[in-house]
Amino acid sequence: MNFIPGWVRNYQKSWLSGDMVAGVIVTVMLIPQSLAYALLAGLPPEVGLYASILPIIAYAMLGSSMTLA
User: Fold this and answer.
1) Domain for residue 14, yes or no?
2) Whose CB among 10, 15, 18, 48 lies 3.0–4.6 Å from 34's, allowing a Cys bridge?
3) Domain around 44
4) How far is 34 from 6, CA to CA, in rounded Å?
């Protein structure tokens, strides 16, 4: 069985810089947003950060920025 997603096999090095910029932008937007949602829910701010880590890791492993384009 092959567990490597198809986009990994066809990934081009020229896409790396754009994907890195997209990752930084998502991170910069995600941190205050996750803190705010946790505070609105009456939870400690760090809970928002913890809750936002797994979806980002899952997306990084299973998707690509080409999917969003």
Assistant:
1) no
2) 48
3) 39-69
4) 31
